[in-house]
Design brief:
about 500 residues; FAD/NAD(P)-binding domain; seven-stranded mixed β-sheet; globular; binds flavin-adenine dinucleotide
């Protein structure tokens, strides 16, 4: 470890994908005028992973902190709005539900609306659960508008949204901001890293043309290679393939179709699932699959046979191992992005994990030198966050009625982490859910929508029976009517974009 008096001012970011440029853009904004020297090394020859186009609402906090203008970002990246994710065929073939951001209805006393819904859905006296959450109903009707906090009593006050954007255009947009604020970009391929003999910290990296780039703190954003944390410092990787058997993806863009849907679609396939992410100028598609259950050629056939528009390229393969590094911070190297771990993009969480990693680094920034307590806390929080997201993703596979293919039979019957078992059991017996820690990403609304959507057979909270049927059914009807009226008044998603933030037909430079 450095002596505490060693000030850290030279930050070298290795890699210029979404992780590298998000880090550069935010640090250059927050540390502006602090005497920092921030460099970013990237290699056009190696390129980026080129996927990662769906986000979750917290990204709006990143934009605000990084001083990025929403409309400028949308226009520069061909972005659309996202109200949630539709899951098709996950519970059973022919079934669909939406995991919407934002609130579900409203509470009656301390009881949450899903408790009433469960009781009366069993008697056939309710509509599909999507009718009780504005985000879900608006998504079904392809409507979008910004939340309106001026009327706290309206469901519009609680509307929540994220974006779909073109990943390479997003990195380009962030790069322009970071360079304006003084970040130096170095184009070159790193061939090795040299350690300081006295403490094993990275001293400098060597580029293929002989240049050397030094740094006091290195941020490893080199993608799945984990050039510094994994290859140079030898930090190990904990693999979670037994719970998450998908290990490959094929990505392909296709032509746009109407309507312009304000949500991501995830359709379960025989050995994995397919994403559909609508942008202004194209639709991004991909098939995430388990190579133990389907061949690459068959996976490509499934993907190409299920596009809404004409394919605009050949499918591009990506291989991955679900899991995370044993530590994300070791000596003077902090890994952010794919270098710190990977969870499949089912709930669009990777970009969010980049964002929280940067904020964690800022909160624990070793301005006066690296110390062991900060590093340990950083690693503890990172591990918790990865495991929390992992459990939520596993729940989508475990809670299903499907057993129609070897893949679905495997995931339905597999063992799951104890942390998840306890959660499912509590929900099964009384549909109750309690957050365990502040740092949990997915809150009650998310778990409720996914567990009910996936078909978990839950009993309603017995306290619901204290409310007379007539009152309880009236309460559900009110929620449904208010949400239907508000959704009806929202503009069409495509019309909203055309009016406020349409991108140029040719992407901005
Ligand atoms: P990369 O994009 O791989 O960037 C690595 C950088 O390091 C590049 O600039 C490269 O040139 C540089 N580099 C590497 N080696 C060297 C070297 N030797 N010398 C110099 N430079 C080097 N996330 C979401 O939030 N939402 C999604 O919808 C989503 N979908 C995904 C779908 C798939 C199939 C996959 C695999 C991932 C998805 N992700 C998604 C994750 C998302 O793509 C990543 O989190 C995000 O792109 C960040 O990647 P990165 O910057 O860490 O790595």
């Amino acid at each position: 470890m450095n002596a505490p008096e060693t000030k850290i001012r030279k930050i070298t970011i290795v890699g210029g994908g979404t992780a590298g440029w998000m880090t550069a853009a935010l640090l250059s904004q927050l540390f502006n005028d602090g005497g920092f020297d921030i460099k970013l090394i990237e290699s056009d020859e190696i390129g980026t992973i080129g996927v990662g186009e769906a986000t979750i609402p917290a990204i709006r906090n990143y934009h605000a902190l990084a001083g990025l203008d929403q409309v400028a970002m949308i226009r520069a990246t061909q972005a659309t709005f996202k109200l949630g994710i539709e899951f098709v065929d996950w519970r059973a073939l022919g079934h669909s539900y939406i995991h919407g951001f934002g609130k579900i209805g409203q509470d009656l006393l301390w009881l949450h609306p899903h408790q009433f819904w469960l009781k009366y859905a069993a008697r056939g006296q309710t509509k599909h659960f999507d009718h009780y959450a504005l985000n879900c109903l608006a998504a079904r009707q392809n409507r979008f508008c910004l939340p309106d906090p001026r009327n706290p009593g309206s469901p519009l006050a609680d509307l929540d949204y994220a974006y779909h954007f073109d990943a390479s255009l997003f990195a380009r947009f962030l790069r322009a901001h970071a360079e304006q604020r003084g970040v130096t970009r170095i184009e070159g391929r790193i061939v090795s890293a040299e350690l300081r003999p006295e403490d094993g910290h990275v001293d400098h990296v060597l580029l293929s043309d002989g240049r050397r780039v030094d740094g006091e703190l290195f941020i490893d954003c080199s993608g799945m290679r984990a050039l510094l944390l994994g290859q140079t410092l030898g930090v190990g990787y904990e693999e979670w393939s037994h719970w998450l058997p998908c290990d490959r993806a094929l990505a392909v863009p296709c032509e746009s179709v109407v309507p312009l849907t304000p949500y991501t679609r995830s359709t379960a396939r025989a050995a994995g699932w397919q994403w559909r992410i609508p942008l202004q100028h194209r639709i991004g598609n991909g098939h995430v699959y388990s190579s133990a259950h389907i061949s690459d050629d068959e996976a490509a056939d499934v993907l190409l046979a299920n596009l809404d528009g004409r394919a605009l390229a050949d499918p591009r393969p990506v291989r991955f191992t679900p899991g995370r590094r044993d530590k994300s911070w070791e000596r003077n190297v902090v890994a952010i992005g794919l270098s710190s771990g990977f969870l499949e993009p089912l709930e669009s969480t990777s970009i969010h994990l980049i964002q929280t990693a940067i904020l964690r680094l800022v909160a624990l920034f070793p301005g006066a030198g690296i110390n062991a307590a900060d590093v340990a806390e950083y690693n503890r929080q990172t591990s918790f966050e990865f495991e929390d997201v992992r459990d939520f993703i596993i729940a989508h596979y475990k809670v299903t009625e499907r057993e129609d293919t070897p893949f679905w039979a495997y995931v339905r019957n597999m063992d799951i982490p104890d942390s998840l078992s306890a959660r499912l059991e509590l929900f099964r017996t009384s549909a109750r859910f309690f957050g365990q820690q502040k740092a949990e990403l997915f809150r009650e609304e998310s778990w409720v929508q996914v567990l009910l959507g996936q078909g978990l057979q839950a009993q309603h909270d017995p306290m619901v029976d204290l409310i007379p049927d007539e009152q309880a059914l009236g309460f559900l009807r009110d929620i449904e009517e208010v949400i239907a009226d508000v959704a009806q008044a929202m503009p069409d998603h495509a019309a909203f974009i055309a009016k406020h933030c349409r991108a140029p037909a040719t992407p901005l430079n």
